[in-house]
Amino acid sequence: MPRQFLCPVFGSSLWLALILQSLISSAATYRRPVSGGKRQSFLERTLILLDVNTRSPVKVLNDNFLSLQLDPSIIKDGWLDFLSSKRLVTLARGLSPAYLRFGGKRTDFLQFHNLKNLAKFRGPGPDYYLKNYEDDIVRSDFALDKQKGCKLASHPDMMLELQREKAAQMQQVLLKEQLSNIYSDVTLTARSLDKLYNFADCAGLHLIFGLNALHRNPDNSWNASSALSLLKYSAGKKYNISWELGNEPNSYRTMAARSVNSSRLAQDYSLLKTLLQSVRFYSRANLYGPNIGRPRKNAILLLDGFMKNGGSVVDAVTWQHYYIDRRVTKVEDFLKTRLLDTLSEQITKVLKIVQTHAPEKHVWLGGVGPAWAGGTSNLSDTFAAGFLWLNTLGIAAAHGIDVVLRHSFFDYGYNHLVDQNFNPLPDYWLSLLFKRLVGPRVLAVHVAGLQRKPRPGRVIRDKLRIYAHCTSFHNHDYVRGSITIYIINLHRSRKKIKLAGTLRNKTVHQYLLQPFGTDGLHSTSVQLNGEPLRMVDNETFPELKPRTLRAGRTIAMPPVSIGFYVIKNINAYACRR
């Protein structure tokens, strides 16, 4: 598949003439006096010309393109009991519409029991408060049961403090399991499923539930008894859920000393499809998979065999990608262009297989995060991780990946969007801006840059990444026909961008994200156009106010920053319909 995402450059003489004309005009307008002998100003050497093809989109994505994931570990560390928090629901609702995938490494160790929550299923907690803590949870459950419709709670500070203490102890157990690749079973009760669905429903998210694929019969066929019990319970509650089976089946040999080949995996999915059709409420439910891990040799072979042997039973093909492992300790690693480009290589491998066997199938990036194994403290939860996250969204969109599921919305470790104090981290604010400003229609970007002599494309090839979409139709601050451009500047210097062609002399709204505070790229706080972003209260977001750039003004991107730029009233044909 041709690489359309890295800002293709016009090759026509008309475009070159436009470049020269714009540069002459820009130089006349912006040239600074220089002292003897300096040949060109800083501006002239770094000016970048940017235009967008507004006639037709190159890709059209799912309305839920940016979606979310929750790991089953929230059952073990106790946080599932707090998904009714008004603040958590508000934060999740800010990213709707979206899918919510309930899955991860522990998907294949989930056991469903059609019971109300009992203390023995909750997992360990500090003895000195466990009884009182359990009593508080039960009282909270009774209070929620009395509510009609969306069930929301305001948990006392002391209760949250005790939960954080329990979760901190449990986090060490969870990380040890993940690093050793040896997992214990996770019990999902009916009450737990109720809470999970209530959270998704209240937040406007569509739940995708991952079923345990390692529950096997002696002949290695999939044992569907637990899944059938869960399906019948969910159908009785009329829970609108989509389904998937297993997580990273290419890793089963190391996780459980058991392997599932591609033929068997395809048979398992066919069995699940038959099972869904046998439960009337889910006869038309969507099924996604096979959710392979990073597409290296074994995973690619498994995916290829799965698609050959009946994998077309799925409604979308899913896979996962992580950029780095948790041993990375330097912020500079998050800025390496070679690392950012690995995603494009992996996407190309997956698309090649899917287009060979089922070209009509959508492809989803079913689990993605900056770092593997829970992430790295003071790195994957900081502003620096935002470069990887926005790069993922931009590259995936340009390749036509239909949905990207972020691991994780709220979780143990350091890959999440919301921390355990229920405060949004930098990647959350980045996601919120993306949701509000970026629509599913992807536009072709055309860029040319000048250093000491015309060398089209040279400036922007690696460290300045530019993407364009139609502005989201859900944003009523902008009329249809507006365009949103988002830019990643990995340079340690400021870069200046001149809008040309169809974008020339248009008013621009700037949403510039930079780290807030003295920690720089290690900061867990973010500022928008110089103003720090914080929740006003548990149910109110801050106002995301743009800075207006007058028509014809050059965009100045500060070093290592992220910017969204809405071109207003451009009446782009691709964005009107």
From TrEMBL:
GO terms for biological process: extracellular matrix organization. The keyword Signal applies. Keywords: Signal. InterPro entries: GH, Glyco_hydro_79. SUPFAM superfamilies: (Trans)glycosidases. The keyword Nucleotide-binding does not apply. GO terms for molecular function: hydrolase activity, acting on glycosyl bonds. It comes from the Eukaryota. Residues 1-29 form the signal peptide. GO terms for cellular component: extracellular matrix; extracellular space; membrane. Gene3D superfamilies: Glycosidases (3.20.20.80). PANTHER family: HEPARANASE, INACTIVE HEPARANASE-2. Belongs to the glycosyl hydrolase 79 family. This is Inactive heparanase-2. It comes from Cirrhinus molitorella.
